[in-house]
TrEMBL record:
UniProt xrefs under InterPro entries: Aquaporin-like, Aquaporin_transptr, MIP, MIP_CS
Domain of life: Bacteria
This protein's UniProt keywords: Membrane, Transmembrane, Transmembrane helix, Transport
Intracellular or extracellular location(s): Membrane
Family, per entry: Belongs to the MIP/aquaporin (TC 1.A.8) family.
Membrane-topology descriptor: Multi-pass membrane protein
Record protein name field: Aquaporin Z
SUPFAM superfamilies cross-referenced by the UniProt entry: Aquaporin-like
Source organism of the structure: Subtercola frigoramans
Length: 262
């Protein structure tokens, strides 16, 4: 007796890919902003409070959301969840330029919905909770007096270029079909994000992702919106630098296996 072979899985439709990007970006923003809003200083901003997860918890939350999203939605859409990543992959020749705009739109929708969900939950909190979150920028990115550590615009520009470029280098490396270990890319990407946030949160609250920055600045308003351009422009600059340089330096290189045994 013989059994028919299972059919080959169909290629994801354009709609499926866009929905995957929307859901994945929603997860990213919901996880990051939710952790920062509800858990970072739980139950208050008192520095003696032992329950809040602090910077470490926020960084781990973002790493986990991206790792989970990459496993869940990556097989459908590629798991970008970030306009800078989409542009960086396109500049590296790993993604079609013709699909860039629709991916970015899907990411913006997912990010705004994620931030809106957290805003709605915060509005149901105790008296003054939502006002305090909005007054603090609603997890928006900022420099100068809006930097967690008081860093200026130069530091914000530099860190966004550096960390986004490093993030893209890791993505391009762990997804390189010639030498990457299959199945482990989301783990490396998630841990990389955690590390980069631990470095950059005190400087400008860590963007790396223009969609995330736009979504939170909408609710932060005022000066947070005025400073938003930095967190749109310079993550993209870092991503394009990484995409173009990785393509030049590493893609197309022939990899050889060497043995330690002589």
């Amino acid at each position: 007796m013989s059994f028919p072979e299972a059919p080959e899985p169909a290629e994801p439709s354009t709609l499926a890919r866009l929905l995957a990007e929307t859901f994945g970006t929603f997860l990213l923003v919901f996880g990051l902003v939710g952790t920062a809003t509800f858990s970072a200083a739980f139950p208050s901003s008192d520095t003696s409070n032992p329950l809040g997860v602090g910077f470490l918890g926020v960084a781990v939350a973002l790493g986990l959301t991206v790792m989970i999203g990459a496993y869940a939605f990556g097989p459908i859409s590629g798991g970008h969840f970030n306009p800078a990543v989409t542009l960086g992959l396109a500049s590296a020749g790993r993604f079609a330029w013709s699909d860039v705009i629709m991916y970015i739109v899907a990411q913006l929708v997912g990010a705004i919905l994620g931030a809106t969900a957290i805003f709605a939950l915060a509005s149901a909190g105790p008296a003054g909770f939502l006002d305090s979150a909005v007054k603090g920028g609603f997890v928006s990115n900022g420099y100068g007096e809006h930097s967690p550590g008081g860093f200026g615009i130069g530091a914000a520009i530099a860190i966004e270029i550096i960390i986004t470029a490093l993030f893209l280098f890791v993505i391009l490396g762990v997804t390189n079909a010639k030498h990457a270990v299959a199945g482990f890319a989301p783990i490396a990407i998630g841990f990389t994000l955690t590390l980069l946030l631990l470095i950059s949160i005190p400087i400008d609250n860590a963007s790396i992702n223009p969609a995330r920055s736009i979504a939170t600045a909408i609710f932060g308003g005022g000066d947070w919106l005025a400073q938003l351009w930095v967190f749109i422009v310079f993550p993209i600059v870092g991503a394009l630098i990484a995409g173009l340089s990785y393509r030049l330096l590493f893609d197309g290189v022939k990899y050889t296996k060497t043995s330690a045994a002589k």
